[in-house]
Amino acid sequence: MNKSRTKYKCGKCNAERSNWSGHCDMCDSWNTFEVDLNSDTTPKGLSNKKGRAVKFVGLKGEKEFIPRIKSHIEEFDRVCGGGLVPGSAILVGGDPGIGKSTFLLQVCAAVDRNKGVRCLYISGEEAIDQVRMRARRLGIENANVELASATNVRDIIESLDQEESATLVVIDSVQTLYIDNLDAAPGSLTQVRTSAQELTRVCKKRGFSLFLVSHVTKEGNIAGPKTLEHLVDCVLYFEGERGHQFRILRTIKNRFGPSDEIGVFEMTNTGLTEVSNPSKMFLRDRENEVSGTSVFAGIEGSRPMLMEIQALTAPTNLGTPRRAVIGWDSNRLAMIIAVLEARCGVSISNQDVYLNVAGGLRIKEPAADLAVAAALISSITGRSVSSGLIVFGEIGLSGEIRPVNQTNIRLKEGSKLGFTGAICPLELTKNSSKTPEPKVEMDINSVNHLDDLIKCFNKTSDTSTDSDMEG
Ligand code: TYD
Ligand code: MG
Questions:
Q1: How many domains would you assign to the chain?
Q2: Neighbouring residues of the ion ligand 2, judged by CB less than 5 Å
Q3: In the listed set 246, 276, 306, which residue is the last one of a domain according to the structure?
Q4: Euclidean distance between the first and final Cα of the chain, in Å?
C-alpha cells in the first residue's frame, strides 16, 4: 500500500527530503527545511477546501412535539419510557425463539389507532402466510397491520421513503437483510450494519418508529445486536430461560427515557401476556420454611420486585469444588463465599455450591449479596430463614453490610405481599429520617456486619423452628 508521507523542502534551494534535517547538503545552509504543504504526499485531512458553517439554534423550539405512541401494553410502554417516540429506532434483541416476532406483532396490533396510525410489518424470515397463521393463533387477525415479506434494503427503503409514510415499522430481522451492491453475505457485519444505518436514516427523515429485530448469535460470522447498539435510540433485550414461561424485556439504552427498566411477560398459548404483579408470580410456588432459600427485595428499574434465591451446598470429592450459578454473577458468588470463609469462619471450600434465582430472572444488583449469603448459610446450617422475612444489603470485602438505595420502597413491596420483617443494613433509620416517607410497619433486623446476619439467623430459626429442631 502507498502510504502518504510528509515531505520537507529546503527554503533556499528547494531540495526535497522525506525526513527533516537541520542541514541542507545541497546548498550547505542550516535550519532551512520546512514541511512542504504543497506536496501531494502531505497527509490530506480536510485540506484547504472550505465547508459551510453550521447553523446554531436555541434550546426551545417553536415546533409542537408529536405525542408518544402508546401500545396500551403497560409493561411495554413503561419499558419504552412512556410510549414510542416518533422517529426513533428501537433495537429488539434476544435469543432465537424467545418471542420477539410474536411480541412485535402483538405490539403492532395493539397500538393506538385513533390518530390514523399505520403499522407495517416486514418479515424477512417468514412468509406472509406464516405471519398470518401466527396472528390467528394470537387472536389478532383482524387488526389493521400491513404485512410484507422482503429482504432487499433498496426495495424496503423505496416503499418507506415516501411522503405519507408509516407510523410504525417492524423489520424482522436485520440479519436477513441485504444491500445488493455490497459483496458481503446477509448477516455479515457489513450488511447488518449498513442496512441498519440506511433504515435508521429513513426513519429519522420520515418520522416513523422503527423496530429492528436482531437475534443474539453464538457464531462469529453472523453479526449480533451488540454491533448495532450505537446506531439506534433505544435497545431492548428479551431475556428468559427457555424452560420458563417468564420473559423479561429489559432496556439497555434509551435516549428518551430511563434505562434499566424491565417489563415482565408470560409466554402463554395466546402469545405474551403482561405480568403486572411480578413479585407475586415469582414467589408463587414458594413453600414455607425450606432451608437454603431467601427472599430478596430488589429494584428493577423503577419498580420493586421480590425474588427467591435458592442455594444448595453439598460435600464434594473434587479438588476444585463446583460453583454453578443461574441468574447471578458467578464472580460475585465467589466473593461472598470468600468473605464468609475469611471473616466469619464459615467453611465452604470443601462444598459444591449451586445458586439459582427462581423463575429464570437475572439479578444484577449488588444489593442481593445479603440474600445470597443468607441462602448459603441456611443451606450449610440446615436452618431456614423465617418465611416472613425479606433480605437485602450489599456486602463489602471486610464483611461489612453496606446500605442500599430505595430501602423504603423495598420494605413497602415486602409488606404489600405479606412479609412481616426484613434483614437489612443499619443505615435504614438514618435514610428514612432524611426523606420523610410514610413509615413501613415491619420488624427490622438491622445488620452491619455478616456476623450479625449469622446471629440474627440463628435467632430467627431458633424461634421459628424451635419445636421441630428440638423434637
Ligand atoms: P418467536 O416469536 O417466533 O421467536 P423469535 O422471533 O424471537 O425467534 O417465538 C416462538 C416461540 O414462542 C415458539 O417457541 C413458540 C412460542 N409461542 C407460544 O408459546 N405461544 C404463542 O402464542 C406463540 C405465537 C408462540
Ligand atoms: Mg422471529
A1: 3
A2: 101
A3: 276
A4: 85
